Amino acid sequence: MPSRNVALAGATGNLGIPILNALVQANYNVTALSRIGGNSSKLPNHPNLTIKEVDFTSTYSLTAALQETNSEVVISCLATSAIGAQNPLIDASVSAGVKRFIPAEFGMDSQNPLAMKLPVCAPKVATQKYLLSKSSENPGFTFTGIANGLFLDWCLEAGIILDLSRHAATLYNGGDVRFSTTLLVDVAKAVLGVIEHQSETENRVVYVQSGVVTQNELIGYAKEKDGVEWETVNKDTEELRRESLEEWDKGSGGDADGATLGFCIVGSWTEDYGCDFSGHLDNELLGIEQLKEADLRKIVEGLL
Fold first, then answer.
1. Rounded to the nearest 5°, which phi and psi values hold at 243?
2. Which one has a higher pLDDT value, 220 or 3?
3. What's the alpha-carbon Rg for the chain, to the nearest Å?
4. Distance between CA 247 and CA 258 in Å, rounded?
5. pLDDT 10s digits, 64-103
6. The predicted structure's pLDDT at residue 21
7. In Å, how far are 48, 62, 134, 136, 280 from 185, measured between CA atoms?
8. Helical H runs in 26-121?
9. What burial class does residue 224 get, using C-beta atoms within 10 Å of its C-beta: 0-12 exposed, 13-18 middle, 19+ buried?
10. Strand 179-182 and strand 211-213: pairing?
């Protein structure tokens, strides 16, 4: 039987919300770990949902919340800026007897040697190493990372993959690079799949995608719908990587958010960084069906 008591950190974020909805709809008992003084008021009222305000820097505070709710699985959906600060939550999970920890992975292939070197990915790799060390010391404690590429619906709405509202796009490496991308609802399904298949997903990264596509294919779907010509510019991701590193190295004087997005783009649209997961997917195990071309076209058309 899968674990029924689940704790979720970052439940009010772009990814946390669909994961929370999927968990309560699947009748899991969910504890939302919310920062003291945070925005827990945004969380829904649901009989299966408990809210615990915690100090995310305090292992004691986190352990108490997990013990009080008998949490067996912890899911971390902390913001990108906080993915390097998950150790207190990991330590608390070990102390509270949690069986499975799902870190704030959700993105590029962190197992790819080039991706590992990107500043946005390095904290994920460090977290995995820490989780492995804790698992070796505590055999009942395990983890699973989830790699899902770009969030298809969110990134289209945010104008990251394409700017549908302006019919404009920056085409990375020509716009014909095939990249894995996943709907937020399918990422949530993958989380449920991990909980339900813990032995098969123990201490590794699983790979899922709703589909694999190119920027130019998506633009083609838009043109078929409204016939509007697009304004495009080309950008080489190696050039973007260097520019992002320059900003990153400026510290507080640089554009950290822009650099972070730049690194994510490099990992998502550069073939050598493993941006196409098609050869090593866990979709079938985790219950994720891939979108057909007609489905992808419908998503684009719905956002125009």
1. -65, -40
2. 220
3. 19
4. 8
5. 999 999 999 999 998 877 778 999 999 999 999 999 999 9
6. 94
7. 20, 27, 30, 32, 21
8. 59-68, 87-95
9. exposed
10. antiparallel
Place of tokens 């790799």: 125
* pLDDT given for residue 220 in this prediction: 97
Rounded distance between C-alpha atoms, residue 303 and residue 34, angstroms? 32
How far is the CA of 128 from the CAs of 110, 135, 220, 229, 273, in angstroms?
A: 9, 10, 39, 45, 18
Residue 50's identity, in one-letter code, is T
C-alpha 141/C-alpha 138 separation (Å) is 6
Distance of CA 40 to the CA centre of its chain: 21
Element containing residue 224 per DSSP (H, E): helix 215-226
* Amino acid present at 23: L
Tokens coding 216 = 């130019």
Answer whether 43's CB lies under 8 Å from 32's CB: yes
The DSSP letter of residue 250 is T
DSSP 74: E
- What integer pLDDT is reported at residue 43 of this predicted model? 83
Q: What are the structure tokens assigned to 72, written together?
A: 């067996």
DSSP 290: P
Task: Please write the tens of the pLDDT for every residue from 16-45.
Answer: 999 999 999 999 999 999 988 777 777 878
C-alpha dihedral, 132 to 136 to 139 to 140, nearest 10°? -30
- The pLDDT confidence band at residue 159, using thresholds 50, 70 and 90, is very high
